[in-house]
Amino acid sequence: MRLKPFVPLMLPLKERIVNQLEFIRELIEANKSIVEYQTMLRNSKLHPQFLLRPVMLKEAVQSTKIEGTQVTLDEVMEAEVQTKKANKDIQEALNYYEALMEGMNALKSIPISTRLFKLMHKILLSNNVRGSNRSPGEFRRIQNFLGPEGCTIETATYIPPEPQLVNDYMSNLEKYINDPQDDYDELVRVAIIHAQFETIHPFLDGNGRIGRILIPLYLYNKGVIDYPNFFISDVLERDKHKYYRYLNDTRYKGDWTQWIKFFLECISIQAKKNVRLIEEVNKLYEEELERASSIVNSSNIRTVIDVMFQRPIFTAKTMSDLTGLSEGTIRRYLNKLEEQRIIFSDGRIRFKTYYYYNLLDKLR
Hints:
- The chain has 364 residues and is an all-alpha fold.
- It has 15 helices and three strands.
- It has helices at residues 24-42, 48-66, 73-81, 88-106, 114-124, 166-178, 186-200, 207-221, 233-238, 240-252, 256-295, 301-310, 316-323, 327-339, 357-363; strands at residues 313-315, 344-345, 353-355.
- It has a three-stranded antiparallel sheet with strand order 1-3-2.
- Helix 10 (240-252) packs antiparallel against helix 11 (256-295).
- This is Fic family protein.
């Protein structure tokens, strides 16, 4: 039987629909894990901004993977420093990163709003990627539908609201984000907000990615995290069939409890992974700084190591631009670090690319 366009509930949801007591254990655990992650970040030997970039690029890779792209973190980082043109999968991941950065910067002057969603969406579908002909930066004016690849509207697993209702639903979502009028914890709210955005499906393409960018932006905007660097696409990608099923259950079964439970568990898993990553990266940073200082006798070596932790794949020019040191000085330092196998290169004579695998191995 063909589904009809779905008619979502407006937010806030009634308490009988979402009862926090039904997932209180998961909520406490998720909040505890986030606090541990934030504390670890604040006390890190590395400035949180250093890891922001590689972690955001990893998120870009994982979030676009959910949509079916075949791309690795190394390929995305290589495309940034090499002159060759990125293929469409890589460009999709780079667009995601740019949309995320733009969203983060825009929050300084505008709230999370329709304007922000459209701004990020336009960037997401730029540079001739898949979907670039599907109204970038504009809400849809035609009916869309979801389902397995190749399905028709007759065999769709979900048909979002009719296009003429999109503006009303998005206005309601925007109002809820900025003035929720309920007593739920922020982690519960972000689970509801993400699900509602995916249910409205306001764009013709890119809804999943914009909906996942919304998670760290919301938590950052509400002061739950200090930097918008908490991403759960890695965990969602691992359990993507569960992710889609529980989202659909909020629609057709009205089961919000199971969805919120799953979402909170994803937050806990990711926060614990992040804590382990920061512990390992802190240890690596101390060891590499000590090792590099014994190889290169200059106070500038700390600046070079700092950049390596922000850009584990780089060229001498990138390093020179970011440190302010001359390319000649940088090449001399990099040759010494390569001789001692701290970094590796592709061996090219011109436009040589360097790889800092000790960090890449931890990020992948």
